[in-house]
Amino acid sequence: MRVRDAVEADAAAVGSMTGRPRGVARNMIHDRSVRVAVTDDAGSESGGAPSPSEPSGDGDGGDDTPVDAVAGFVAFDVRDGTVHVTNFEGTAAAVERLFEEPVGFAKREGMSVEVIVPADGVGPEVVEAFGFEAAGSGPRIDGTATTRYWFDPAESG
């Protein structure tokens, strides 16, 4: 499994994971820093295949064929000196690997990380393994209770 920047061709897979339309996922890919964990279905060094980080096509929608199988994604952005993880989904292994991206960025930049995590799924275990601490209730998302988690690299040593 490897991690790369998400491209438009990943919108269908990301949309499928979140239950959102492809257009919404595509907008997220454009508006946030989005990383995907992928497995090489096509054999990573297949001759002449486009690089996953450089999709083929001219932006007219012709680049909708992903070259990898997406196992998970994480989306994050920075506001007010904090890295905000705005969305994530995937297998436990993929999500664990993907959280290295916003946490690593925060450590390099001397920022804290905040994430809103649904009570169900792999999220609570993954964020707690990284050293995140529960910081109270988060907003209800689609009727599901969430918890706000906080990580400060300066406090984690």
Explain how this protein is built:
This protein has 157 residues and is an alpha+beta fold. The chain has helices at 11-18, 22-31, 92-98, 100-109, 123-129, 153-156; strands at residues 2-5, 33-39, 69-79, 82-90, 112-118, 133-137, 146-151. The protein has one domain: 3-Layer(aba) Sandwich (Aminopeptidase). It is 29% helix and 31% strand. The chain has a seven-stranded mixed beta sheet, with helices on both faces. Strand 6 and strand 7 (146-151) form a beta hairpin. Helix 1 packs across helix 2 (22-31). The chain is globular and about 40 Å long.
What is this structure, in a nutshell?
This protein has one domain (2-156): Aminopeptidase, CATH 3.40.630. Helices cover 29% and strands 31% of the residues. It has helices at 11-18, 22-31, 92-98, 100-109, 123-129, 153-156, and strands spanning 2-5, 33-39, 69-79, 82-90, 112-118, 133-137, 146-151.
CATH fold name, please?
Aminopeptidase
Beta-strand level of the residues, as a percent range?
Answer: 25-35%
- Into which percent range does the helicity of residues fall? 25-40%
Question: What's the main sheet like?
Answer: 7 strands, mixed
CATH class designation: Alpha Beta
**Total E-strand runs:** 7
- Biggest sheet: strands side by side, in what order? 1-2-3-4-5-7-6
What is the average of the pLDDT values? 84
Tally of discrete structural domains: 1
The helix-strand sequence is: EHHEEEHHEHEEH
Distance between the termini: 28 Å
* Rg result: 16 Å
Shape label: globular
CATH architecture descriptor name: 3-Layer(aba) Sandwich
The tally of helices reads 6
Protein name: GNAT family N-acetyltransferase
Region (Disordered): 1-68
Biased composition (Low complexity): 47-56
